[in-house]
Fold this sequence. Notes:
By secondary structure, this protein is α+β, with helices and mostly antiparallel strands. Helices cover about 35% and strands about 30% of the residues. A hairpin with a 2-residue loop joins strand 8 and strand 9 (about 165).
Amino acid sequence: MFNKIYDKVKLFILENIKFLISLIILIFIFTFEFPYVVYTPGGLVNLNERIDVEDGYEKDGSLNMSYVSMRKGTIPNILLSYAIPNWDLKKSEDVTIQDESIDELLKLERIYMTSSINNATLLAYEKAGKDVNITKRINNVTYIADFAKTDIKLQDELLEVEETNVENIDDLRNIVKSKEVGDKINITVKRNDKIKNCYAFVSNQDEEKKIGIAFLTTYEYDTNPEIKVKTKTSESGSSGGLMLTLAIYNDLVQDDLTKGRKIVGTGTISLDGTIGAIDGVKYKMLGASKKHADIFLCPEENFEEALNVKEEFDLKLTLKSVKTFDEAVEYLLES
């Protein structure tokens, strides 16, 4: 019986050899990834459609988050980057860290996005004078230095350091400072839903005691009124923090920041309202212009680059740099 099956398979291959070779080539062309990524002008996310605040105020215009599109380094995408203006080819090593893959990078970027949503919600509720109560802090390991001597991995959830709860990065620094160079610090983490006992050795870096680990804190919290922020699995990163905060705040207060306009922007947000720099402002502005944005808000650190993009491509939008959330609100209310 096996001989008959073998003969049939062999006959099928011989009769369809050209088709099978062509199929293999096509699969290779469209799926094999070279160590490159392609950046392209992105689009907009209308946050009015993503944020649902209980009994929130209806507004006339829209607050939009701009994004960069990143395509994997397949042969078609690489070839298109040479043919289509503003499709830029970059080496993967220039956009990843510590030899992490693009997929691993995207997982980290999802953590950054969660943190961004957290910061936006907590800050917007505070500024609007609404109730918000933090119920849990989650410390996600997002950076491990080259000099670090540790078995901790990126995306581990840091639970305890030397049997002590750590709420912020300063708590970790204080524990490290209390040790001697060469000391082994015991660290408890959660990895893939399992508790693991890990370690990190204290090193002397630039005359400062360090273990070469950094983490980002995300939160669980209760709010009044209740809020739901919808995201897609393809979305990641922290650069939407400013616009998320403005959109949530706009739903919580009676005044309308939009005044019927299409407002687009980018920038990270911290809990104290500081707006941080981002990457890819060129692609975000081009995407915003294509979608007929009226105003584009950007961090002060990115303003010079953004102004050059506006002038180079003669973009018909108002460009405004902002340093803080309060400054952004004041500008939108007065403009």
